[in-house]
Amino acid sequence: MTNRTVLISGAGIAGPALAFWLHRYGFRPTVVERAPGLRPGGQAVDIRGTAREVIERMGLSARIRARCVAERGMAYVAADGGVSCRMPVHAFDGEGIVAEIEIERGDLARLLYEETRAEVEYLFDDSIETLTEDGDGVRVTFQRAAPRRFDLVVGADGMHSRTRALAFGPESAYVRPLGAYLAYFSTPYPDDSGWFLLHNAPGGRVVGTRPTRDGRTSALFSFVSPPLDVDRRDIAGQRRVLAERFADVGWRTAELLAAMPDAPDFYFDLYGQVRMERWSSGRVALLGDAAWCPSPLTGQGTSLSLVGAYLLAGELAAADGDHRVAYRRYEEALREHVRRGQELPGGGISGFLPASRTAIWLRDRSMRAMTSRPLRRLTARAFFSKADGLALPEYAGSR
Ligand SMILES: Cc1cc2nc3c(=O)[nH]c(=O)nc-3n(C[C@H](O)[C@H](O)[C@H](O)COP(=O)(O)OP(=O)(O)OC[C@H]3O[C@@H](n4cnc5c(N)ncnc54)[C@H](O)[C@@H]3O)c2cc1C
């Protein structure tokens, strides 16, 4: 039992999952989260491949499955609501665009928090201000709490990680914008369709709806764009951008936009990927989107976070807290898996956001072909098997 203290920045998915494992191995984790409480919102996220084994070892598989969103698949619809092609969940054995385990991000974050809150210290409404490393620890100052020392620090604070900025340098060196933006928010409209619906409009725009676990409609908007001059905290400005960009789009767009001002969980960000040569510097390591954000296009972000948390904690335990050994092994074990997870499926941004009516029509045709019986196997191998293939090591106490 190492009893070492670890400060984790970020109570999203990766942070609480790491705290879960560290506590099991005898470390003393503290999680600091900038938001005043758990952040609600986000749409259904996928738990794929190796990550399913991780939630099994956490003993959470049954509870996660009990909270799954029952989606039947994904379909593209025209402006009048007519379906142009469907991708049912069963067509790809639960590993297609809609996976077998789809849980609302907010539900998963809450479950991980509830599972750890009794043993793990959580500091909400705070953020790391400075990190100063010396021979035997890291001195941390916070925006609100008094300064403290920790043996190790892990940044699990998302694509715009402050920990990464402090330990590795500015975001522009690591975040690669993919040339598009996305927004999610919940609406009060009922939805018992069971389908994830998407409507593409020319100009690289898409509007979507997904049913939530409690039978309501969650809205999704994405659009191609060069970097926008709107601050990440300027929610009113972001809402304005969406309303303007989608003013002429048909289907349910007007109705969904009408619900935007009252949504309690509006989320807006660029599509980006984080690429780093190293995930640690001294006693500070990065995990999850902070280290390797694959972008929501891949459907791999949550799975990679769960697998990464398992490996990072396991290697720290196996090395009895020696971060030099553990961080190196963590990277060696995970690099290739992350590289595969970052591959963009199906033509990347232009496949998801075709520019013209012709491109939309062509995409629908190729989607129909991919979903046809003869090509299903090939499609599944080419696009959706990236989450498999990592044999999870065993650590003392990992089961
Ligand atoms: C509100 C929200 C909604 C999302 N919705 C979706 C979705 O619908 N589909 C999808 O594919 N992905 C979504 N994501 C991203 C998805 O959660 C991640 O790709 C994936 O689960 C990896 O999780 P993570 O823990 O590394 O990062 P995140 O889930 O992004 O969590 C990072 C956490 O760090 C916190 N944080 C940020 N800065 C600081 C700071 N300075 N100090 C302390 N804490 C900080 C954030 O508030 C957040 O709670 C969403 C993320 C968020 C935050």
Task: Provide structural commentary.
Residues 5-319 form the FAD-binding domain. GO terms for molecular function: FAD binding; monooxygenase activity. Keywords: Monooxygenase, Oxidoreductase. It comes from Micromonospora globispora. The chain is of the alpha/beta class. It is 34% helix and 26% strand. The protein has a domain at 5-69 and 103-174 and 273-341: FAD/NAD(P)-binding domain. It has a seven-stranded mixed β-sheet, sandwiched between helices. Strand 9 and strand 10 (148-150) form a beta hairpin. The chain is globular. The model has no long low-confidence stretch (mean pLDDT 92). It binds flavin-adenine dinucleotide. Flavin-adenine dinucleotide (FAD) is lined by residues 9-15, 32-35, 39, 41-43, 45, 105, 127, 156-158, 162, 184, 267, 288-289, 296, 301-302, 305.
